Amino acid sequence: MSKRCIECEHAKSGLEENSAEFHVWYEGHISSCVINHVGSSCAMEQEVALKLWQRSEDSGFQYTTLLSDGDEKTYQYLNTKEVYSPEIKIKKEECINHTEDYDLPSAMEFEALRLDTALNEMLCDAREFADEIDIQANFELIQPRHRV
Ligand SMILES: [Zn+2]
To answer: What InterPro entries does the record point to (predicted)?
Structure first.
């Protein structure tokens, strides 16, 4: 999902947004415009997370944990939607990179944290969904729903 389009932004910088020229240009551009979300980034993050959670079962797994950036809204939204069932609650873990008030680690703890952070960053990169959205999650395999 995206609420920004580089081509639209470029056109708006060169043309008056409410001008006839812009509207003519936009009519020709609309079929290729990448904007598919209007609203806050927070709402977009929640909708993207919901889509990810909903389609996980199609691939045979369920996300169990949301790695949080300190903002609880997406976590609460997913649990409100009861994605898998009312009985399955999604857990939340705080990403240490986003935690402001934690005690500074000792040298050994710091090395462990660096390794953990590096691994998490690799996982985060692999799971990145869109340019502006950074949702990380743990998952586990579930039993296949169809038996022969
Ligand atoms: Zn556009």
So the answer is: Mutator_transp_dom
**CA 12 / ligand 1 centre spacing (Å):** 10
> Would the pLDDT of 32 be above 80?
yes
pLDDT digits over 82-96, tens only? Answer: 999 999 999 998 877
Neighbours of 52 (CB within 10 A): 18
Q: What angle do CA 86, 89, 92 make, to 5 degrees?
A: 155
Ligand 1 centroid – CA 25 distance (Å): 10
